[in-house]
Protein: Peptidase A1
Amino acid sequence: AAITTHALFPRQQRIGQPPSLSLSQDVVSVQSTDGTSPGPVVSVPKFLFSCGATFMVEGLANGVTGMAGLGRHPISIPSLFSAAFSFDRKFAICLTSSTKSKGVIFFGNGPYIFHPNIDVSKDLIYTPLILNPVSTDAIYYEGSPSTEYFVQVKSIKINGKTVPLNSSLLSIDDQGNGGTKISTVNPYILLETSIYNAVIKAFVQEINANVSQVAAVSPFGACFSSNNIGKTRAGPAVPPIDLVLQSELVYWRIWGANSMVQVNENVLCLGVVDGGLNPRTSIVIGGHQLEDNLIQIDQATSRLGFSSSLLLKQTTCSNFNFTSIA
Structure:
């Protein structure tokens, strides 16, 4: 049934001004789980959604047919599901790095158990979610805060060495500019130009001297011959990148599987992209950096939990038991 008295403006960063769509409702059925394996199918009545045109998914990954609203909003999927099933406004997302296997998203509390019987929820590292007081949507009411998820990155380290950069860009100003957010819309991490240049320079300095830098492949600015880059459980053997959070002891380590992109058989590129001068957000952590990392968003306590690379735990996001019914 369509709710014609309301309009929805879905935000897709790559298409600019969003269209006005009618808000509709229906019953949706989803697979339940105890965190170990699939349970019975359950239904959510009065589930709100909109039907959009195909151009709404232009610029997104191949095969994408729609968008799921997971932000801080009363009609986002986490809000609707928590109201329907009386659990905390919490969800966890685990994106697979493979085009041939599925990732998984959990709504509600853990555990999150992946083969071989690894409960990822036990080893999450937590950092506060920061509320951006100014909406980052294309259309919003004055005074509305952002519905996106921001964290406080205080510095960046490469190979354990702090990258020199303008630290004021890491905080959100009174206009809502700056800071760091999580986004599955952007395929790779976006960095404000001065941060981007500093990270590229530091990474090139720290990579093994036997590794040859080669011509850049768009949209990346630093690419290397893969001939002398070794392999580890967590991907290519390159300097780790640390996003230092609320203290020096709390950091999100990005290993080679999430920092490097194989652009062809012989070339690996550092998977960071120049976000331009004066972007709305200084650092946007993109989808590639999230692959095979479990990310938990807890709206109720306003904190983010992250696992870092599951490859180090000898599992992946595709290793949830999707077949056996509990």
About this structure: The domain at 125-314 is CATH 2.40.70.10 (Cathepsin D, subunit A; domain 1).
